[in-house]
Design goal:
The chain is α/β, with parallel strands linked by helices. The chain has one domain: Rhodanese-like domain (Oxidized Rhodanese, domain 1), CATH 3.40.250.10. Strands 1-5-4-2-3 form a five-stranded parallel beta sheet. Strand 2, helix 2 and strand 3 form a beta-alpha-beta unit. InterPro entries: GlpE_sulfurtransferase, Rhodanese-like_dom, Rhodanese-like_dom_sf. GO terms for molecular function: transferase activity. This is Rhodanese-related sulfurtransferase.
């Protein structure tokens, strides 16, 4: 797991053909907008969150974000503990995101 600045996260993501963007915010937070092409699994769903993660392809590179960067850091740690090799936390989260939104 790596904590990446907005700039590094976006630059690395653009070059990564094996990337998946993972949004771990709640449904209410999604109303603020999303980073295009992201999938959402709410980290607050506890065991269901882990069950949903288990369905994902562990060979992909996951770019993870939440509102501020705290929960996405936790999500990256959980992902590592269940066998995901590459996850990247967006420092500052969606609150500080300056890229495209949908």
């Amino acid at each position: 797991m790596a904590d990446l600045s907005q700039k590094d996260w976006e630059e690395q993501l653009e070059k990564d053909s094996n990337a998946v963007i993972l949004d771990v915010r709640t449904e209410e937070e999604l109303e603020e907008g999303i980073i295009p092409n992201s999938i959402n699994i709410d980290i607050y769903k506890g065991q269901e969150f882990i069950e949903e993660l288990e369905k994902l392809d562990k060979s992909k590179n996951y770019y993870v974000y939440c509102r501020s960067g705290n929960r996405s850091g936790q999500a990256c740690a959980i992902m590592k503990s269940i066998g995901f090799e590459n996850s990247y936390n967006l420092q500052g989260g969606f609150m500080n995101w300056e890229g495209e939104t949908a």
